[in-house]
């Protein structure tokens, strides 16, 4: 029995020792401060780490967080100067600088900051109209910071920053603002469209102008080149016609035509007189032989055309011409002899005295001259 009592006493003593040790050792986290009270009165502050206190006499009543804290308050309705209600959300960034003052100077510093913020927001926004409220966030933040710094300094709290999270105007005001913004955007879109069309028209006009200038220059150069080509073609055509006339004239001089040849040419032209569309009737006289004889006698007696052509034949100087291929010289000589023989035969047939034929092969006669008729 006595041993049981001793065992119970030993257990109780052990529990007392363990409880005493537990209450005498306190550990404070990093960035926190512990406030120690002795018999209900503030004794001191404990920093981060383990500490020994007097058990059952000293007590760590509060552990204050010394870090910067963020508190977001719910939206509150505020009346602006132009009697429009808006809902404003605020965010407070603060830090406890004096844990003793934050604990013993005010009961709940977070609630105190909330109420102070609501009062300050109503005061600041009440002196601003809706437009200034929506665009004056910096002004509201600066006013709140000044009010909180002045009021929370004695509470051991430092308001680092105050931010307006959102400003919500009434639904009708939001609809009107949306319509206004839509109208402004439509106006800017129309302005930009008009400017784009103007720039497009300007660029198009400049392009048309450059195109017209280039087309005009191209047309001018084309006309110049065409005129030059026409001029050169006309010159070449005139030169060709001149050479052709000279060739015909030279051939006439070389052939020495007389009245018989002219009469023969006239007889060749008579069928062509009847080829016209206006010639409906062609009368051939019965005395066609006598008419032809009379025509020959008439042609023989034309004034200015000699019956016989005397004197040497001389070629007209036509200037430089293209050289004749040597292979064609013999053929040209035969052709000239045949022409001379035909002209001589026609002359003898038309002349009443019948001039003696000329032997073109006689070596005593110069090919460039023809002896007079006998």
From TrEMBL:
Alphabetical list of InterPro entries matching this protein: Band7/mec-2_domain (IPR050710), Band_7 (IPR001107), Band_7/SPFH_dom_sf (IPR036013), Stomatin_HflK_fam (IPR001972)
Domain named Band: residues: 23-181
Superkingdom of the organism of origin: Bacteria
Residue numbers spanned by region Disordered: 300-333, 345-374
Transmembrane segments: none
Record-given protein name: SPFH/Band 7/PHB domain protein
Organism: Nocardioides mangrovi
Highest classification ranks of the organism: Bacteria, Bacillati, Actinomycetota, Actinomycetes, Propionibacteriales
């Amino acid at each position: 029995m006595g041993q049981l009592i001793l065992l119970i006493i030993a257990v109780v003593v052990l529990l007392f020792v363990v409880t005493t040790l537990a209450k005498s050792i306190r550990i404070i986290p990093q960035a926190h401060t512990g406030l120690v009270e002795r018999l209900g009165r503030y004794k001191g502050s404990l920093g981060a780490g383990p500490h020994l206190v007097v058990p059952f006499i000293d007590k760590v009543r509060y552990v204050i967080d010394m870090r910067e804290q963020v508190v977001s308050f719910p939206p509150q309705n505020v009346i602006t100067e132009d009697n429009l209600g808006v809902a404003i959300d605020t965010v407070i960034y603060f830090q406890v600088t004096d844990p003793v003052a934050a604990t013993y100077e005010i009961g709940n510093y977070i609630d105190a900051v909330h109420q102070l913020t609501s009062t300050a927001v109503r005061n600041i926004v009440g002196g601003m109209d809706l437009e200034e409220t929506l665009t004056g966030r910096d002004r509201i933040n600066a006013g709140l910071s000044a009010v909180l710094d002045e009021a929370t300094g004695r509470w051991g709290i430092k308001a680092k920053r105050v931010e307006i999270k959102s400003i919500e105007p009434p639904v009708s005001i939001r609809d009107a603002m949306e319509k206004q913004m839509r109208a402004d955007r439509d106006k800017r879109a129309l302005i930009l469209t008009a400017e784009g069309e103007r720039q497009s028209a300007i660029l198009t006009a400049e392009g048309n102008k450059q195109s017209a200038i280039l087309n005009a220059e191209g047309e001018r150069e084309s006309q110049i080149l065409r005129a030059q080509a026409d001029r050169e073609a006309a010159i070449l055509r005139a030169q060709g016609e001149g050479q052709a006339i000279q060739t015909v004239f030279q051939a006439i001089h070389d052939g020495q035509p007389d009245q018989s040849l002219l009469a023969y040419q006239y007889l060749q032209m008579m069928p062509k007189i009847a080829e016209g569309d206006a010639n409906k009737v062609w009368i051939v006289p019965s005395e066609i032989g006598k008419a032809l004889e009379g025509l020959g006698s008439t042609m023989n007696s034309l004034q200015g055309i000699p019956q016989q052509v005397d004197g040497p034949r001389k070629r007209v100087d036509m200037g430089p011409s293209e050289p004749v291929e040597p292979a064609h010289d013999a053929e040209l000589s035969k052709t000239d002899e045949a022409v001379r023989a035909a002209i001589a035969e026609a002359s003898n047939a038309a002349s009443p005295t019948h001039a003696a034929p000329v032997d073109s092969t006689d070596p005593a006669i110069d090919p460039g001259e023809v002896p007079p008729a006998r």
